Structure of Antiluteolysin:
Amino acid sequence: MAFVLSLLMALVLVSYGPGGSLGCDLSQNHVLFGTKNLRLLGQMRRLSPRFCLQDRKDFAFPQEMVEGGQLQEAQAISVLHEMLQQSFNLFHTERSSAAWDTTLLEQLRTGLHQQLDDLDACLGQVMGEEDSALGRMGPTLAVKRYFQGIHVYLKEKGYSDCAWEIIRVEIMRSLSSSASLQERLKMMYGDLSSP
């Protein structure tokens, strides 16, 4: 559960700078949607992970690159945005609609979309024209490649129930494994208790 809140805290931390707001106004709902999204992913479980052990795979989440100490403010926001965008895209396909409870899936899509809307404003504010290449290189590109591997895996497995279950667990893990990024942002932006 500690990891589940890591991404949420990182997203909150991104909105605060040394002197307060970065001009990046993340609503309180942004954090609530993040918590709800992780809870929804947990509720979407249809199979026991033990049943799908033969389908497990290491998707090589770019943890070192994503959590590396050299991430700049714009890169951190870009990486978080890319993770949310790719997760939204993954769960917004016809194949995913067939795999999951439609009510839970629609709630997840809505929550991810809301978080993306909140981060879009921040991304535009912190990424000037000179930073526009950040989405095509480094940590953000590593996240894109990671999700490409997930799409290839699903296709290779014929979008089976076990493949979707493995992906559900993987997405939960990737969205909640940003503890180091959280610490990095905390050091960059200071204590949240005094914005």
